[in-house]
Amino acid sequence: MNQLEVKRWTTAASPEKLGQQLRQFFPEAEVYSAYEAGFSGFGLHRELGG
Length: 50
Fold this sequence. Notes:
This protein is 40% helix and 0% strand. The chain has 50 residues and is mostly helical. The chain has one domain. It is globular and about 30 Å long.
């Protein structure tokens, strides 16, 4: 069974900052995202995807 880790934090409204933090907190994780209209637009999806 897969292990689940939950972490709660706040971050700036910045796709780059969120991407950096996810890579820092979960360096071995595979991150999946789906585009959804919002404050950060497509940039967040693009940052998380690669």
